[in-house]
Design brief:
Elements (H helix, E strand, L loop, with lengths): L1 H32 L7 H30 L13 H42 L4 H28 L12 H14 L3 H36 L4 H23 L10 H29 L1 H8 L1 H32 L17 H10 L4 H24 L1 E3 L2 E4 L8 H25 L1 H6 L3 E10 L2 E11 L13 H6 L3 H27 L28
Helix pairs in contact: 1-2, 2-3, 2-12, 2-13, 3-4, 3-6, 3-13, 4-6, 6-10, 6-12, 6-13, 6-16, 7-8, 10-16, 11-12, 12-13
Amino acid sequence: MAAAASELLTGWCLFGLALLAILIFCWVYVRKYQSRRESEVISTITAIFALAVALISSALLPVDIFLVSYMKNQNGTFKDWADANVSRQIEDTVLYGYYTLYSIILFCVFLWIPFVYFYYEEKEEDDGNTCSQVKTALKYTLGFITICAVLLLIGAFVPLNIPNKKNSTEWEKVKLLFEEFGSSHGLTALSFSISSLTVIGMLAAITYTAYGMSALPLNLIKGTTSAAYERLENTEDIEEVEQHLLRIKSKCRDGRPLSSRDRRSVQQLEERLRTLRRRERHLESIEKSWWTKFCEAIRPLKIVWGVFFIIVALLFTVSLFLSNLDKALHSAGFDSGFIILGTNLTNPLNMLLPILQTVFPLDYILITTIVMYFIFTSMAGIRNMGIWFFWIRLYKIRRGKTRPQALLFLCMILLLIVLHTSYMIYSLAPQYVMYGSQKYLVQSNKTTDGQPRNVTFVSKECDADAPEDQCIVTRTYLFLHKFWFFSAAYYFGNWAFIAVFLIGLIVSCCKGKKSVIEGEVDEDDSDMSDDELSVYYR
């Protein structure tokens, strides 16, 4: 009993260390991208907190799986200390952890982040009247609160099991709704809301992560163009534009006014010249910086990392394809959300995770690696594409130059993508996410020449056919599969993810090297920080 308590304490200590590492990572990550000139304390704290909560919720997944697995021996029997009361307490602890984290996520998505965003939007338009800014921000935030309330009500009062009694009265049906809500302790309401956010996270993952999985490794392999070469080309462009301007302005030396067409040309050329001179300042700064020299020195290491990332991306895509193909061939169909009972077509990650789970915390490290890989590839996709609303580009994400509103958008997108990773991991290893390494005992009656022998018991891995009192389902699974239509949406989303990855891989292969100041200076840039040199290149 003491040894068990010691190992459980060790597990929770590792979880605590993971929390500290997550907070440090979020602080460094947000500080890396936020604008040095337009930095705002509240937006910075909001972004760090929201991203940290999402990462902590993903860190709870391996802890959940470890705890349900640790309650059983390898032969399928429960450990001496793992009686019904202890196991229920452990399950409740994890469940309350999910309740807390997911409630905070709802608070961030539907209240805190929208309020801070609209507050700073209003601050730019009406600088001075704080009370007016708060009122306007609350007015817009009220719409998000309404959406959250509607989602909670739908999840709470739409019954999962509709009664078949034809003679039941309307009052009895309403009473049943409240009984279901009370018996689930609000689990279905929270699950519906989180699943709705996870679907949005799936769309964000399809848009940004799938493309970033191809763009990031190929950019590392191909590298960037030389700063000296780009500066030489830029100087030639400046001379060419200046000569063109002189030719147009020479037409009015005799006092004649320029035509409207020439005036438009002069305006466009002057804007082009300002952009080229900004590029000149950036390129000069980069060419002289120690960071550029350091990046050139570790160029072989970047190529190695690029090759590693593309192998990981292909491995992940193949695993996802095999998992989805298994669902297409062996699942119960659309009406069940393509839920599959057991695994018929295995994949590399499905084989690896249960093996690593037996040696804590190897599976914890792998899941953390998968989540961080999703973060970095998503960030690569967002940096390459920017934040768009349909065909309108809202913001760019740049190191040291991201505005407070864009930073909030960035962390909102990453938060939703991290939420979706839990289902992605389930898609790749359903057995692992549901039961971990649990086994249960099955009675085996062997006979010899028609005569029964002694009854023996053999251990078998837990699956959907296992008795409920022999295998404990993780709390994560309860949140993921309360509603079949969300599972169906995830299934089709996985196919879309694979398709976008392959398209992005082709596009990334066809594109040439990136500019060394890619995204730093642009004519149509809506960010107001173009004129300041990046602190990373000084």
